[in-house]
Structure formats: C-alpha cells, structure tokens
Design brief:
336 residues, 7 helices, alpha/beta, six-stranded mixed β-sheet
Length: 336
Amino acid sequence: MRRYGKHTDEDDIRSRPNRKGNRPRTHIRPKHEDAVEGMVLTVDRGRLTCLVEDRVVMAMKARELGRKAAVVGDTVAIVGDLTGDKDTLARIVRIEERSSVLRRTADDDDPFERVVVANADQLAIVTALADPEPRPRLIDRCLVAAFDGGLTPLLVLTKADLAAPDGLLALYGDLDIPYVVTSREELESGGAADRVREHLHGRITAFVGHSGVGKTTLVNALVPLDRRRSTGHVNAVTGRGRHTTTSALALPLDDGNGWVVDTPGVRSFGLAHIDPSRVINAFPDLVPGTENCPRACSHDEQDCALDAWVAEGHADPARLYSLRRLLATRDRKEGD
C-alpha cells in the first residue's frame, strides 16, 4: 500500500521534529583550510599551550580527532580565537605528520606506549656520576628508544667532581655517541650550559634522566630567566631525587636558536613497544652484514650472519657487541 500519492513533493513527507533543537550530525568533516600552524609547548589536563607565530595560545583538541592525542613538540593546525588573550580558547583540528617520536612504556609488561615528545631531533640523556649513582641499564634503554624513534643521542654526565667519568664513558665509546662532562660547581654556576649549548643549536632536544641528576638545573641554565622551572634535591636516605617536573615542557634556548624539552624524571623506561629489528638501523656499518641473515633474525642468535661478517674484518667486533648489548636490554631489568 502506498503511503503517499503518485505525485509527491517534500511537503507531503512527514518528518519527526528534532527534540534536542540542534543540527543533525553529519559524517562530512570540515577541511579547516583557514587553520593556522602552531607548536605544542605543554599539555595539562586536556588544555594545550601552543606557540602560534609569536603568541602563546591556549587550545583544546577537537572532537573529530577522536582518541588521537597531541603531545609536546607536535605541529598542529589551530582554528578559533588565536589572540592569546586571557580566558580565550582555540581548537586543534589537525595533528601534522611527525618526523620523530620518543616513546616509552611504564614497564616491559605494559602494552600501552606513551609518546613523550614529537619532532625532536636529539635526545639528551642526563646522568649523574654519583649522588645518585649512574644506571647504565637505564642509559641503554634510552639509547634504544632514541635509535628506534629517529633521535640522535647525546650523553650529558653531571657531578664529575664526585666521581670520574672514565668507566661509564668506556661502556659507550664504541657507539660514537657525543658527550659532555660537567661538575656540580659548573652546573650550579651555569658554566656547564655553554658546552652543552654547542650541541643544541638549531635543534629540538628532549632532556631525559633519573630524578636528582641535575636535569632541570641544566635546562634552567639554557633558557630565559622568566621560563625557569623549580628544582629539587636528592634524598639522603634513599639516594633518589624528588620529582619536581610533572609534565613535559618545550622551552626556547636563551639565544633563540633552538628548543629544549624538559621531561619529568624517570625511574623506569619500558621498551615493550620497541621492535628490535629497527635498532640495527642505528649501526649503519653493520647493516650490510645482515643481508645473509635468516628471515626475522634478531641479530642476537646462533645463525646470525653478522658473526661471520664481522669475523671477516668488515666491522669492529666491539660494535657488534654494543648492538647485542642494546638488543638484550629488553630482557634485563634496569638494575641488573
């Protein structure tokens, strides 16, 4: 039975009223072609502080982004009120493709990875030589995360007045990682900043380290006075530092030629998300030797072709040892 006549028009069609009084939802998303580019400086409880040209703008993530979250260092497209005035709020409608990603998990059994910073060029691993004692396994894990994420590592060793750096540096000599050694006096006076700054020019550098190693003190010496953050101290009983940095924050260098990202102090660095097959890319001198490796070779097994290739003199055996030490770090606890 026909509900309407043979010749119907839109006035004949019954429609239900919209009880909510709002517009019907649509799957067509706006392109936001007028969006302005910005950089995420920090994230705090759903509010993102962004740099748009020379203004600091508060923004929130648009609903259409779903679960995709913006992190410090992200380049984003922003619409809305971009004046940066008090009590104004813009909207992030797009997260641009990332050139690098530093990720970690809470521990090696945690399947959920956390992006620490995006688009950084360099990872500065800050470690005290004493008070608190250095943790080589933590350094190894940070190196693996840097190599996997596309960041260049930099070792920054502090408190050289309390212990010599030679033993720790010997562990990483075959990796050809640049390093800076500073004393506690240099750290407090700001003299250490000059030598560290030489490695930061024109780059975005993320700083990571165990609590109490002097990471935030060093960052404060590198950034303008009005951008400095509070610092803590090392507990005399536990030998551990107190967390004073609770969220990652991107800060400009005091000379305006680069950025540093201060991150919260870490006590563990899970690598559950790391694909071991990508770590070999940080050893370009060993990559040609993997051509005859069995399929899905971990490069740390009996049939790995790298053993014969290195034995033939194509690469330094110490480099292969360093690669396998880093690959094995997923199977070891940081205190081992």
